[in-house]
Amino acid sequence: MTLPIRSPDALTLRFWGVRGSTPVCGSDYVEFGGSTPCMEIRCGPRLFLLDAGSGLNACGRHHRDRQAQDCRSQDHLPQDIDLLFSHLHLDHTSGLPFFKPVVLDPKRTINTWCGNLDGQSAEAALDRLFSPPLFPVSLDVLPCSLVHHGFRAGETLTFADGVKVDTILLNHPQGSVGYRFDHAGRRLCVISDIEHSDPWPDPALLEFVRGADLMVYDGMFTEGEYPVCRGWGHSTWQKGMELAQAAGVGTLAITHLHPCHTDDTLRRIEAEMQAAMPKSFIARERQEIVLAPRPVLAGRACVQPAPALAFP
């Protein structure tokens, strides 16, 4: 497949981990992958990482190798990394100490951002998690610097370079944070982990994702599986599609995949999704989506085709 041409100012998303709850491996999980959540989002040259599941390990290896091959690569990792957490459950945090090109570099800084703890940062929770006897070393022995920031979901994050990211509180045990990135006339919304409400769609969430070019949504369960998993904090691809269609979303990507859903199962689900909404798909690890800058003519944005997809 021809890779999409990435404009220097594009809004891009790359999936490094797409599973929920626990990693999986084996011949049944080759196409979609088995690592837990991690996404790389770039607003032009500005990089964000969203969640630090086991997929963060592959993200680190990729960037280490690319940097070794070409120090001028546009895929480089900046000295200061902004790591946005949806929440701090184990499948979203377990990869943090294994992000080797960053955590082993004394010149690097990781800024963590956590918005589901009523304003508290992730520091205390991560210090409990990564300490004996649960983990052999504490984070403070890592060569890199960690700086922890707390906020309340619903606030807009404004970074030192002026980039802004909007947030929303999602329905999940202990809460979760959805993120919205607006750049170069494009909009990307990441809505995971979430359990849909009744009635649905939720009006505040509907407005939050309205007009998005791409929405990433938690579709862990099928409608048949969901009734016995009610209250676990996850949704279905059907509810994601209802939200996307009501909000005028261009493309829907389903993530936080059930660890028991094999490649065959997911291909069948994806075919069913695309029969109802052609511009929808199930996320695959290492898949990249490029949203080219939207040209502006006479002060108004031009409509562009759906984003190109790549499977490097």
From TrEMBL:
Lineage: Bacteria, Pseudomonadati, Pseudomonadota, Alphaproteobacteria, Hyphomicrobiales
UniProt cross-references to InterPro entries, sorted A to Z: Metallo-B-lactamas (IPR001279), RibonucZ/Hydroxyglut_hydro (IPR036866)
Organism from which the protein derives: Methylobacterium adhaesivum
Coiled coil: none
CDD domains (UniProt xref): TaR3-like_MBL-fold
TM helices/strands, residue ranges: none
Domain Metallo-beta-lactamase: 35-232
Pfam families assigned: Lactamase_B_2 (PF12706)
SUPFAM superfamilies listed in its UniProt record: Metallo-hydrolase/oxidoreductase (SSF56281)
Name assigned to this protein: MBL fold metallo-hydrolase
Domain of life according to the entry: Bacteria
